[in-house]
Specification:
This protein is α/β, with parallel strands linked by helices and 684 residues long. The chain folds into four domains: 49 residues, N-terminal domain of TfIIb (Single Sheet); 177 residues, Rossmann fold (3-Layer(aba) Sandwich); 181 residues, Dimethylsulfoxide Reductase, domain 2; 132 residues, Barwin-like endoglucanases (Beta Barrel), CATH 2.40.40. 28% of the residues lie in helices and 17% in strands. Strands 5-4-17-16-15-6-7 form a seven-stranded mixed sheet, covered by helices on one side. A six-stranded mixed barrel has the order 21-25-22-24-23-26. Strands 11-10-9-13 form a four-stranded parallel sheet. Strand 4 and strand 5 form a beta hairpin. The longest helix has 19 residues. It starts with a strand and ends with a strand. 55% of the residues are buried.
Length: 684
């Protein structure tokens, strides 16, 4: 039987055709009739993942006698999970219990159970809901655009289809999950003559089709953006009308760049002064220049200031809400609301990173190890992990087993075995997105799709599982208890249909961006805030800028002449999903260390050699891949470190090379893209 469906191996929403045999998925192929039809290696190998040895097929509890996990019934496992959670809440108060919702459920309806007033923990009275937002997207998608123009990145759309120049900076559309509609639009724009510029330490992916690849030094994005701003201002090629009428803080920016040396900025970012001038000329040549950016800028010292420099560059050169530039959408928009932590129980990390909580409304998970191991700010004794693996996603790989061993309660719900399941008291098997009802939202409205197949083994929908735990704890009112109630619950929280609107540009001039209809931006000042009073009041740099990683005390350069960058994505991996699946592991059998031809030649390293990458925080052995890297840069993929992965990934991930406690001062994000390192050839 062949069924048209939406792929269920990530949240990307690719349209596929599924062949079902004997109630199981046998094959998955791209839907050739859909413009969202696409198939990556993860989707193609769905049968291997769904029915392989790494799939969690039944509930498990840790046996009190043997200390080993054993198979259990759903009732026993749910009773045990509720018992452990209740015990932690009684002994240490509700705040002693935390949750982590990972990237495996990001964007799915179960996230409603992990944040806000309706979450499982909030129903218990704990403020410690946390998620992968502690390490991904909040800086680039929320903090930066909101402090500039009061609009999150979801409402800032690069008008690629109408661009003459497309600048990809801090994102790789060729390796993002999902149907890659943006990549398709980029290729269509190139076919009609648009020029593609890619700013990235790595050429892999989108850089391979670029008209101009600019190999920026890892951590040098802010310096490059400021160098471009300096060139634009000093040549007088900024939009003087926009700056005068719709910005605040431009004079301070002029003063800042006037005191910066162009040669020093060039040295810091690894881009020559002549190329800086060439890129500035290209950006100023037309207003039809779009910026494609995402998380690549947010894991470095001064990440927020660097991201704001990028947004400011596009603003002062007249690229906001113009055809072919950066379209500002108002559909479904609401004024951004900041969160205040509860006075009686401050969430973990809210004291250290108050702006993170203000923008996200949840604790900063990078601070959880300190809470568990040091009882700071208070003892933390329980953790619920849903759809993720902090041990494989966060730096400080050796730290996480110590954290898990000290917990009195560790409940893990996932589709696949993770490092966390090795230490869990209870393991709960969750259904994949192929195996449960699926909420599909569009401008026309929302609908619920039925499961493609029944869940493998005894897996259940994760929302229903959490609802069962909540009812056992006496806080399950209003939560669904079966499939019919689940469908109704999903639709009740779904976005409403949006009226179709024609695309209108220049909305900041007409008042369409603001609820009060006044021209300007939905910020406190009503203008694009080059100078952010919010950041200033919090004690941070209010202007766009950059920070030299070499001058960060924890990132000293002595004996480490190169710079490590990590965190780039692959179509073969998504968190723990990839190396733990044999068929996918064969596509990418080892985490390679990529370095430039220049550095390889100097080190005497050839492609395929085994090298040791050493940072102030750890070391690991990797297979060298020579070429496609900025000089002085080394790339190692993150995502290793699980006992359920092949040896190369188990021991060769980047988590032991990067620190958890060296972080961005605004968001608490670890600085995984600007870590000093050296590379040594491992002799046979």
């Amino acid at each position: 039987m062949r069924k048209r469906a939406v792929c269920g191996m990530c949240q990307g929403g690719c349209d596929v055709v599924v062949t079902v045999e004997d109630g199981r998925i046998a094959r998955v192929s791209a839907d050739a009739e859909s413009d969202r039809g696409r198939l990556c290696s993860r989707g193609a190998h769905a049968p291997d993942a769904l029915y392989g040895e790494q799939r969690i097929m039944h509930p498990m509890v840790r046996d009190a006698g043997t200390g080993e996990l054993r198979r259990a019934s759903w009732d026993e496992a749910l009773d045990r999970a509720a018992e452990l959670v209740r015990a932690v809440a009684v002994a240490g108060g509700p705040r002693a219990m935390a949750s982590y919702f990972g990237r495996g459920v990001l964007g799915t309806p179960v996230m409603r159970m992990g944040k806000g007033n309706g979450s499982l923990l909030s129903r218990l009275g704990s403020p410690n809901d946390m998620s992968c937002a502690s390490i991904c997207f909040l800086s680039s998608n929320v903090v930066v655009p909101v402090t500039c123009m009061g609009i999150p990145a979801a409402k800032i759309v690069p008008d690629v289809a109408r661009s003459d120049v497309i600048v990809v900076w801090g994102q790789n559309p060729a390796t993002e999950e999902g149907p890659q509609l943006l990549l398709r639009k980029i290729n269509e724009a190139r076919a009609r003559g648009a020029r593609l510029v890619v700013v990235d330490p790595r050429r892999a992916g989108i850089g391979e089709i670029a008209d101009w690849w600019i190999p920026v030094t890892p951590g040098g994005d802010g310096a490059l953006a400021i160098a471009l701003i300096k060139h634009v201002i000093e040549s007088g090629r900024y939009d003087k009308s926009f700056v005068a009428d719709f910005t605040v803080g431009f004079d301070g920016l002029v003063e800042r760049v006037a005191h910066l040396d162009a040669d020093c900025l060039s040295a810091r970012c690894g881009v020559s002064c002549s190329d800086v001038a060439k890129l500035a000329d290209l950006i100023c040549s037309t207003n039809r220049v779009s910026l494609v950016t995402y998380t690549g800028v947010e894991y470095q010292p001064g990440a927020v200031a660097a991201g704001r420099a990028l947004q400011t560059l596009w603003a002062i050169t007249g690229k906001l809400d113009v055809e072919g530039g950066m379209y500002l959408s108002v559909e479904g928009s609401k004024d951004f609301r900041f969160s205040k932590p509860p006075a009686d129980a401050v969430p973990v990390g809210a004291r250290e990173f108050p702006l993170f909580y203000a923008f996200r409304g949840e604790g900063q998970f990078c601070q959880l190890p300190k809470a568990v191991l040091e009882d700071d700010p208070y003892p933390m004794r329980g953790l619920l992990v849903v759809g993720g693996s902090p041990a494989c996603s966060f730096p400080g790989g050796d730290l996480w087993p110590d954290v898990y061993r000290k917990l009195d309660c560790l409940v893990v719900m996932d589709r696949f075995f993770t490092e966390e399941t090795r230490f869990a008291d209870v393991v709960l098997p969750a259904a994949s997105l192929f195996e449960t009802v699926r909420l599909i939202s569009s401008p026309a409205g929302s609908k619920v799709l039925p499961p493609v197949v029944e869940p493998a083994g005894e897996a259940r929908d994760d929302i229903l599982v959490l609802s069962d735990i909540a009812r056992r704890l006496g806080v399950g009112e209003g939560l669904p208890s079966d499939g019919n109630e689940l469908a109704a619950w999903l639709l009740a929280g779904a976005p409403t249909a949006l009226a179709a609107k024609g695309r209108a540009y220049g909305k900041y001039r007409t008042g369409a961006l603001r609820a009060d209809g006044v021209p300007g931006f939905p910020t406190e000042s009503g203008k694009f805030e080059i100078y952010s009073q919010l950041l200033a009041d919090a004690g941070f740099d209010p202007l766009p800028g950059y920070t030299d990683a070499a001058k960060t005390p924890e990132l000293q350069r002595e004996a480490y002449p190169l710079t490590l960058t990590t965190g780039a994505r692959s179509n073969n991996r998504m968190g723990v999903y990839g190396p733990s699946i044999p068929a996918l592991a064969r596509l990418e059998p080892a985490p390679c260390a990529e370095l430039s031809e220049v550095d390889a030649r100097e080190l005497g390293v050839r492609d395929g050699d085994v090298v040791r990458v050493i940072t102030p925080f750890g070391s690991g052995e990797h297979v060298a891949r020579v070429g496609g890297m900025a000089a002085g840069a080394v790339h190692v993929p993150h995502g290793g470190g699980s006992a359920f992965m092949p040896a190369a990934w188990r021991c060769g991930g980047a988590n032991n090379l990067t620190p958890l406690d060296v972080c961005d001062e605004v968001t608490g994000f670890p600085l995984i893209k600007a870590v000093p390192c050296r590379v040594e050839l491992v002799e046979d």
